[in-house]
Amino acid sequence: MATRFKGLSAFPITPADEAGRVDVETFSALIARLDAAAVDSVGILGSTGIYMFLTREERRRAIEAAAAILKGRRTLMAGVGALRTDEAVALAKDAEAAGADALLLAPVSYTPLTQEEAYHHFAAVAGATALPLAIYNNPTTTRFTFSDELLVRLAYIPNIRAIKMPLPADSDYAGELARLKPKLSDDFAIGYSGDWGCAEATLAGGDTWYSVVAGLLPVPALRLMRAAQGGNAEEVKSIDAAFQPLWALFRELGSIRVIYAAANILSLTVSEPPRPILPLTSAERQRVEEALEALSVLETAP
């Protein structure tokens, strides 16, 4: 099951109107782009996929639309995070019924969770379906930090087979992987999000790149990922140079704002981020256009 969580996992936006109703036609076209590019998996309803801004019904519509496009050719992973455990369990069951192949779960909370509370939350959701589940470790948003002890306990739960990690503050990917891997089973996949560091994380031995940029620009992202998977540090450095303007914007403005602007610039959608998130200014959009131009040299597969 862990193989479902390896390689390049592309996370697209979920275009929706002001009332939060998913634009299924546009969303399906975005999924089809990812399928055509042959990404390793597609992750929907993550942070960039605005899962916390969508109702249960709209989340299910998005999963059904993606499953209808992919038809099992790519692993379809769906986010099922919710404040209440019973709601997350219901979302997991919905995802399984709607055609998802895997689940992604963050410890969403208002009252900060204890390690024990998080354990029981994950155990309940993981046990609700037959689908493999990835832990979504996103402390910047959730304000929850997984201890190594908790990760080990969760890894003993049969359906929990992967973790989506943030970039370590010190960029010591090799050190973090060396600390975690011996504590977890060989078939437990450790991957990273934070696009600007994921090639380096892969070079250091990470299993997965959970990628925002791949959800919109899968061909350049695949070129970077395949170079990293091949251990070609010089090629990674060369390809990554074209991404640097975009990475700078991600860090400064937030990847969700930038990627929505990029999708609009590329005429792939007219949707804007859900309020209260505001679209970029015209000056900021101009910088996104320039970043996309820098990446245009990578849009043709080698």
Q: Could you give the order of the helices and strands?
A: EHEHEHEHEHHEHEHEHHHH
Total number of helical segments?
A: 12
β-strand number:
8
- Kindly provide the radius of gyration, computed on alpha-carbon positions and rounded to a whole number of angstroms: 18 Å
> Main β-sheet: number of strands, strand sense, barrel status?
8 strands, parallel, barrel
* Overall mean pLDDT: 97
Q: Span from first to last CA? A: 30 Å
The poorly predicted ranges are none
What is the general shape? globular
Structural class by sheet pairing and helices: alpha/beta
In order across it, which strands form the biggest sheet? Answer: 1-2-3-4-5-6-7-8
Spell out the key features of this protein.
12 helices, alpha/beta, 8-stranded parallel beta barrel, about 300 residues, single chain, globular
How would you describe this protein?
The chain has 302 residues and is α/β, with parallel strands linked by helices. Helix content is 47%, strand content 12%. It has helices at residues 24-37, 56-70, 85-98, 115-126, 139-142, 148-155, 173-180, 195-203, 218-229, 233-253, 255-265, 282-295; strands at residues 7-10, 41-44, 75-79, 102-105, 133-136, 160-165, 189-192, 208-211. The protein has an eight-stranded parallel barrel with strand order 1-2-3-4-5-6-7-8, surrounded by six helices. The longest helix has 21 residues, at 233-253. The radius of gyration is 18 Å and the shape is globular. The two termini are 30 Å apart. The mean pLDDT is 97.
